[in-house]
Amino acid sequence: MSPELSFAGLSVLVARVVPHTVATVHALLRDGARVTVAADIDDLPTSLRDLVERGLVTIDADADPETFDVVLRAEVSTSPSPRVESGGPGGAGGHSSVGTVTLLGGGLGDPGLLTVAGIEAIRAADVIVHDRLAPLSALRHARDDVRVVDVGKIPRGDFTPQERINELLVEHALAGRNVLRLKGGDNFVFGRGGEEAEACTAHGIPVVVLPGISSSIAAPALAGIPVTHRALVQGFTVVSGHVPPGDPRSTLDWGAISRSGTTIVVLMGVATLGAIAETLVAEGRSPLTPAAMVADAGLASMRTVRAPLAEIDATARREGLGAPAVVVIGDVAALDVLR
What global pTM score does this model have? Predict the structure, then answer.
């Protein structure tokens, strides 16, 4: 969004869905606008459909423009500089050599948490392959001619298989394009960045890694929860809650985690939180251990709930918190150092 404009508190109708719409909608939400998209749900890319399903954006294919404060009918130019085509053989843009794949960790939804190198990588990319939790409003820095590929995964919903994502990175890079793989958090913390890097290097494609701020520490920090505190705890353990304790696919020793004496940070654990809490209590953690869930960290919709370990799942459900969310378990979860 233009720094001279503010849409805070305004109702905004996005009348067209084009490649840069996802960046525009995210920027509007960060500015505090109430956003409606005039389209059918099936016509939306995954990352916009995710915002609708999370209740952050309204969809109405028959919306009356006269009822909105602002109507955006077309995309303004976002390109920082004109693209110079070299012509000749090779992939799009006339490239004749193998391109580069850059793995960019985008941190949380706030584009201000991106690194300077990350912004430069967005500006330089020929192709951007992004997830739904990346700071998508930062795509306004991309060139107008950039090819944007949405491969977001909605929990228990639409998703692009990881194998296909790997193929996309390789295909575009071998066609001579500079590819940016943009994810939320850090690519190497439950982001499958290692798999993507291996797939690229196996085909002789250069890989650049630009680390991002992991939600495992950033989400608690934004909620005023330090994952370590000299007077309370000397370490923290980050685990995936994608599968519950006892599931054959789980490789975690929950007993050891429970007895570790560290803060426990659970990513991707909204659906399995009840089972995780029960297991930790059964393995020795007090049911009164402080716990917190931080949802939509870094976004205008961010919310935090706190409750004892035995009650955190029920409390979060009662308050309507859902994915994406980070759960913190340990004495530090009772803190709010920003208050």
Answer: 0.78
* Sheet with 70-72, edge to edge strand ranges: 58-59, 34-37, 11-14, 70-72
pLDDT at 97: 87
In the set 50, 126, 131, 186, the catalytic residue is 131
Per the prediction, the chain carries an average pLDDT of: 89
The whole-angstrom separation of Cα 196 and Cα 174 is 14
183 a catalytic residue: no
The Cα 313–Cα 8 span in angstroms is: 33
Distance separating alpha carbons of residues 269 and 322, to the nearest angstrom = 10
* Residue 322 near residue 51, CB atoms below 8 Å: no
Check if 126 is active-site.
Answer: no
CATH number at residue 128: 3.40.1010.10
End of a domain among 194, 213, 232?
213
pLDDT tens readout for residues 268-300:
999 999 999 999 999 999 999 999 999 999 888
Residue 282 maps to a domain: yes
Per the structure, how many domains does the chain have?
A: 3
At 141, phi and psi to the nearest 5?
Answer: -80, -10
User: How far apart are alpha carbons 50 and 332 in whole angstroms?
Assistant: 31
Does 239 fall in a domain? yes
SS3 211: coil
Instruction: State the pLDDT at residue 157.
Output: 63
The whole domain housing 53 covers 11-72
Amino acid (1-letter code) at residue 45: P
Q: Is residue 312 part of a domain?
A: yes
Residue 88 inside a domain? The answer is: no
Dist. CA 154–CA 152, nearest whole Å:
6
Radius of gyration of the chain (CA): 21
d(CA 111, CA 135): 5
Q: Assess whether pLDDT exceeds 60 at residue 241.
A: yes
